Amino acid sequence: MPPNDLLVRLEHVGIAVRDASVTLGVYEALFGLRPYKVEEVSSEGVRTYFLDAGSTKLELLEAIDPESALGRHLATRGQGLHHLAFQVPDVDAAHARLESAGFRPLGPVKEGADAKRIFFVHPKDTAGVLVELCSDRSP
Question: Is the dihedral of CA 123, 94, 81, 114 positive or negative?
Answer without folding.
Answer: negative
